[in-house]
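FAQ: What does the model actually see?

It sees only this:
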Amino acid sequence: MTILSFFRAREARREQAIEDEALERALDLSERRDPQTLTEYDAWREADPDHAAAFDHISSVMESSARLGALGRDDWRAEIDAFTDGNRRRRMPYPAMAAAACLLVAVSLGWWIAQRPDAVYATTTGQMRTVALTDGSRLAVGAQSNVEVRFARGTRRAMLKSGEVFFNVAHDAGRPFTVLAGDAEIRVTGTKFDVRRQGDSVRVSVLEGRVEVRRKASLPLIGTESPKVVLTAGLQSSLAPGAETFSPPQSGTVQAGDWRTGRFFYRDTPLSDIVWDLQRYSKTPIALGDTHAGNLKVTTSFRIGETDAFLDNLTTILPLTEHRAADGTIVLETSLNAP
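And it is asked to produce this:
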């Protein structure tokens, strides 16, 4: 067996395994849409571009048939195999197969590079940084944040893994800029906006221009697509964990990207959101002792780094107490729950 035939055989097995997995997930999604199934599907699809390509291929076959739901899993497998066998030779090979004639090291390296984003920008506690992208866009990356950027022909894409980023997107009508953050999808051609990912919650605030937000499609095979919400300057919208759509647009409780000035501004903002910011910028651990404390609304402004002064003022204007846990964490809780 030549090295070329070896890599072709190995890649064929890999391709078949991916297609089998894609079919199983497509059938699972056609039968149920529980949060666990959707979460597992999203993670699998994002893990490898080949997963997305295989799933879209399977979906196109299933969508072209009027018998969706009438066939069993084994019947669908035969249907997919019959369609795929007739088209496999005309399909574009995966990246590793394209490099199969090269040395083993070159093949492995080429496949690895193909999966990497163009750039990854990450920050630590209290750190902020500004980066310039090759298209002229600029990102302000907040503390404890991680964002990946990948540009390709006709597309510009960023994935916010955690934290907060302010996007100043260079206008290019022919190449939209898409931001993915958990289940959220944000699409623009050129504007200024802020994306905040707090666990599975996502908030988008717009400073300039027009931004479209929606829950990203989890079921392309059925053709479902969540309604989009359009935001303009001064408006914000949030996607709660498990929600099917973004919340209706409303005036922002913060002005998009104000934190870039080194100062926090909040208007009628839940204390839980403020504490989340403090946790990312303060070296001293801070926590909420109960949910009632987190739900309290606060209007305030203070410089980043003035955490102690803010906490002292907070306990004088709200029914809160402050104490230090054994590990040094500052705990805020409502007076009734205080130790």
